[in-house]
Amino acid sequence: MKSSEVLTRRRSWRWAALLGAAALVVACGGAAVVSPSPSPSGTVTGSIEWLSCADDPIVGNHPEIRCATLEVPLDYANPSGPTAEIALAILPAADQENRVGPLLLNFGGPGASGIDILADNGRAIVPAEIGNRFDLVTWDPRGVQRSLPVECLTDEEMDVWISEPGADSENPTQADWETALDDAKWFAEKCVAGSEAVLPYIGTTASARDMESIRAAMGVEKLDYIGYSYGTSLGSVFATLYPNSVGHLILDGAIDPSPDDDSEYGEQGVSIQGALDRVMAWCDADSACPFGVGNTRKSMDALFEKIDERPVELADGRTVNSSLAWTGIILTLYNRDYWDYAVQALDELSKGDGELIALLADAYTDRTVSGFRSNSMEAFPAINCTDNPASTSIAKYRAIYERFKDRAPDFAFGQAASGLLCGVWPNVNVDPMPEIVDGAGAPPIMVVGTTGDPATPYKWSEEMAATLESGFLLTYVGEGHTAVGGKSECIDDAAIAFLIDGTLPPVGTRCE
């Protein structure tokens, strides 16, 4: 169906689920597993000695950040057994005289390197008063970058994996589904070959236990924490396992705390579709928009059809096809301020210049001129699938696709087909997810939800706030993924007040 009037929307399943959110699911199938129960406060498993990061190629140039490693049990059920080293970094509070204490940060994924993100952004990653008053502490969770890193593909293989053309998302054939299954098997086999010894130990529950080890090693009675996106999963599991160790927790851009097939493999696609449609409508309504002349979506479809037939060459020797272009567009949905980049990149691409759209795609995948800077694209599926045993039934995912194809025509196939990877994954998790993630016994936990969030639907934040025994929902009425940190003075003021003295805004507060 390649014509000027009926244009296919070719979407790769490979990255459609790689959107910064992960769902929690109870381990199922195979041998029976015991759900973790709330634990007393942990004992110190190791010490933290903050040292220069001079030898780190990413952090080394930052003048204030210090680095450390913390020795923890590889398997907390065997505390005297093998150990693992967890990499940490700290950026001391700017105002040491009025310092409150350490604030642990996780920026999501799963698979994002907290250390890299802190080095890239410094104190600007949080509202100014938080950076002034708190030592910003973060870490690379298990499976990520410096902490038991998962290794699956070479850079060359990853380039192909990201940009290989996908299926017609509106009319996937049985062959498309079978190809997605074969590709999933190939990727899983690559990860097993590269990281088989690591995979059983990188789940969310084990990382939540590492958070408790970090708290104990820092010598603080209660842990203050901001978790973004997947970081809300870590925070809610931590609160469930260690309610007595919870200080002031902010969970921003929550995952679904009680997932089913629809929330696992469909609902996120609807949120992404909504954000994309709003970008298209915004450009249509603005006569100054440089692309589309009032018909942005039709023009984008035509352009993507064209570059699939003749990809645009880049200065580094790569080419831009629709798969890579889609990746760049998706990045711009994460922040309202990036919408201008989306239409500018499309305009330049239509004129044969693919450098900006490739730059956006590379920012999403953490690729630099010298290759992929981190293993985030490998750590995401590895951690997600370790937590999330699934099925290999094409019929199951096809049924999910049918339920969502009208609400998410660009993303329903990719979202549904992404479940196949977890279906073929070697489902061995030595520390499975708790059956119920409710933070019972913890003090108030602030959940922040954004109404136009493309990656974690607002309803998930509503559900997490309701599921957590002490959950409190704060709403940002706006666009983009997560809200704390510069999008709304109202949101930032509420976060600052909560972290510093535990004050919550009025119930039902909605910020714009």
Write a concise keyword list for the protein shown above.
disordered N terminus; two-stranded antiparallel sheet; ten-stranded mixed β-sheet; alpha/beta; 512 residues
Description of the molecule:
- The protein has 512 residues and is of the alpha/beta class.
- 39% of the residues lie in helices and 15% in strands.
- It is built from 18 helices and 16 strands.
- The strands form 4 sheets. Strands 2-3-4-6-5-8-9-14-15-16 form a 10-stranded mixed β-sheet, sandwiched between helices.
- Helix 5 packs across helix 6 (230-241), helix 10 packs across helix 12 (355-365) and helix 11 crosses helix 12.
- The two termini are 43 Å apart.
- Residues 1-11, 15-19 and 21-34 have low confidence and may be disordered.
List the helices and strands and how they pair.
Blueprint: E1 10-11, E2 51-52, E3 66-73, E4 83-91, E5 101-106, H1 114-121, H2 128-133, E6 134-139, H3 155-163, E7 167-168, H4 174-195, H5 204-218, E8 223-228, H6 230-241, E9 246-252, H7 261-265, H8 267-285, H9 296-309, E10 312-313, E11 319-320, H10 322-332, H11 339-350, H12 355-365, E12 367-368, E13 371-372, H13 376-387, H14 394-404, H15 412-417, H16 419-424, E14 445-452, H17 458-467, E15 471-479, H18 489-501, E16 510-511
Parallel strand pairs: 5-6, 5-8, 8-9, 9-14, 14-15, 15-16
Antiparallel strand pairs: 1-7, 2-3, 3-4, 4-6, 10-11, 12-13
Helix pairs in contact: 5-6, 10-12, 11-12
